[in-house]
Design goal:
By secondary structure, the chain is an alpha/beta fold. Helices cover about 40% and strands about 10% of the residues.
């Protein structure tokens, strides 16, 4: 394969030769001992005459095609989550249309799709009340359930504003959980992903917040399928996992330490609901297949090389990780362009994107290295760099 010149931090263009593509095994519908969700990204419509930072316009064909790709690999789809740029360009009306189309598009037997219900259509104001937050949650939940969807209960910026105490979180979640039709996945999204969610659960630290959250889960365990925590701290996840009520799953949202957390220990394991699984979907599928066979060494061999890639994509400021997810989808030919909702293609530097190319290649994630190199060259050439 021909070399490509990639930029380095010392301002040089250094030749890099991509590896041969890897042939990944796909997880079939047979024995599985984990649930793997990929939080799926969206594809912007580059020909829509909208201001990217003011309106969301999606390429529906490409967006739904990517979900079918994930389902074909045996992965579930976590729809309209932060990976799909909820709160960073994807508004609620467009998110609802996305959820309806995604639920209707399931064409693989047993395909899973859970969808994010939140309060992001509610304007933030110091005058917000708990009833405002509850009504906003109820509106989104009703719309998703009416479409035949299952619920991921997303963390609420509005609740952070309205709540005055941990008891207020218990009131809101209690009202919502008593009313949902089917058990939900609760998402505790840390402030590293969204600074507006600092002090969630009404607590100044994660340990106290965990106690509050666990109390809510215990009170409503029959309405909770699982909880996804995104704190990027494996010790906190393991500690919480060991205290979950019977029947409530832990879904790791730790894009730094997922292989270890999914593998688990003598006291349990985490299932997965991960943004990085959008980017490394073929490897995630192969790892799921290996776990199903009990081949734990093979599982680790598959996922270990993806961890440096994931840690790079999710490096601080973590909320801009979506740019890396979409960039990899572009390199791998899943979409024709690297344009994003909200203009977020500009959120990461060229050096960051070049390192994604290197790390994805080393992890075997570039499905067609020649195509990926051609597209990488184009991105660099637009910036006036000779690749």
């Amino acid at each position: 394969m021909p070399d490509i010149k990639l930029p380095t931090a010392d301002r040089r263009m250094v030749p890099y030769r991509p590896r041969a593509p890897r042939d990944w095994e796909r997880a079939d519908s047979g024995a599985r001992n984990r649930i793997f969700f990929a939080a799926a990204h969206v594809v912007a419509d580059p020909l829509s005459d909208v201001e990217p930072r003011l309106s969301a316009a999606l390429d529906w064909e490409a967006t739904i095609a990517y979900r079918r790709y994930l389902w074909s690999l045996g992965l579930g789809v976590a729809e309209a989550m932060d990976t799909a740029q909820r709160g960073m360009g994807l508004d609620w009306p467009t998110a609802l249309q996305l959820i309806r189309r995604s639920v209707a598009a399931r064409d693989v037997p047993g395909a899973l799709v859970f969808s994010g219900a939140g309060t992001d259509h509610l304007a933030l104001s110091p005058d917000l009340t708990l009833d405002d937050v509850i009504r906003a949650y109820e509106e989104q939940i009703e719309a998703i359930e009416s479409a035949g969807g299952r619920i991921i209960l997303m963390a609420s910026r509005a609740l952070v504003v309205a709540a005055k105490s941990p008891e207020d979180y218990a009131i809101v979640y209690g009202r919502i959980l008593r009313a949902v039709r089917e058990p939900v996945i609760i998402h505790w999204l840390g402030e590293m992903f969204d600074p507006a969610l600092a002090r969630y659960w009404g607590a100044p630290d994660h340990a106290t917040a965990m106690d509050i959250c666990l109390g809510i889960l215990a009170d409503h365990a029959n309405k909770v399928e699982g909880i996804k925590i995104s704190l990027l701290d494996k010790e906190k996840e393991i500690a919480m996992r060991r205290r979950l009520p019977a029947g409530v799953r832990m879904y790791t949202g730790d894009d730094f330490n997922y292989p270890e957390l999914i593998a688990g220990d003598d006291e349990g394991h985490s299932d997965a609901l991960l943004g990085i699984f959008d980017a490394i979907a073929p490897a995630a599928s192969a790892a799921l297949a290996a776990l199903g066979r009990g081949s734990i060494n093979e599982y680790h061999d598959i996922l270990a090389p993806t961890v440096p890639l994931s840690r790079h994509i999710f490096k601080a400021p973590t909320q801009f990780y979506k740019s890396g997810i979409v960039f990899l989808a572009y390199l791998n030919g899943h979409q024709r362009h690297f344009r994003m909702v909200g203009g977020q293609e500009s959120a990461r530097s060229l050096l960051h994107l070049a390192e994604i190319f290197r790390l994805a290649d080393q992890a075997g994630i570039l499905l067609d290295p020649d195509l990926a190199a051609s597209r990488m060259r184009g991105v660099l050439q637009v910036a006036g760099l000779d690749a």
